[in-house]
Backbone:
């Protein structure tokens, strides 16, 4: 598998990449493998930080096995700079989570946004990213997501 991080991790006392708390008290503890996310929201925020760091190992480990893509997730020298994460809604029960968010980023200096509704599943006490859809899309494939049969 490729190297764990393409970008340097923040200092422990720096703000977290997800915008919530200090790195060491927020997503840093998950990406450093000292803790596992206890909620789908913690997993969502830590996966955003992993994308910002291009931490493919963490992203693959937290992706549900039935929907996990084949690496690599990132192109060499991919010019993406993640700017901010905004959580629009969050619903979670014992086994499933749904989070709607907007992530802002730049590609080659040009501002972009990703608006997604992500689904998460809890299996054997661990949260995993299942899949997502894009509510802004007009694609006929953009149907509501049914719960998978696991």
Residues:
């Amino acid at each position: 598998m490729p190297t764990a991080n393409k970008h340097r991790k923040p200092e422990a006392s720096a703000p977290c990449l997800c915008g919530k708390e200090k790195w060491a008290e927020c997503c840093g503890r998950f990406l450093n493998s000292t803790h596992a996310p206890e909620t789908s929201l913690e997993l969502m925020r830590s996966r955003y930080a992993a994308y910002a760091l291009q931490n493919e190992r963490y992203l693959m480990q937290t992706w549900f096995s039935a929907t996990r893509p084949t690496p690599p997730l990132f192109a060499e020298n991919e010019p993406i700079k993640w700017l901010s994460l905004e959580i629009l809604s969050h619903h979670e029960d014992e086994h499933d989570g749904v989070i709607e968010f907007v992530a802002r980023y730049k590609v080659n200096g040009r501002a972009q946004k990703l608006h997604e509704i992500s689904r998460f599943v809890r299996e054997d006490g661990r949260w995993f990213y299942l899949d997502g859809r894009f509510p802004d899309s007009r694609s006929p494939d953009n149907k509501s997501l049914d719960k998978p049969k696991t």
Observations:
- The first strand starts at residue 80 and ends at 92.
- Helices lie at 28-31, 40-53, 56-61.
- Residues 1-5, 139-150 have pLDDT under 50 and may be disordered.
- Residues 7 and 53 are 5 Å apart (CA to CA).
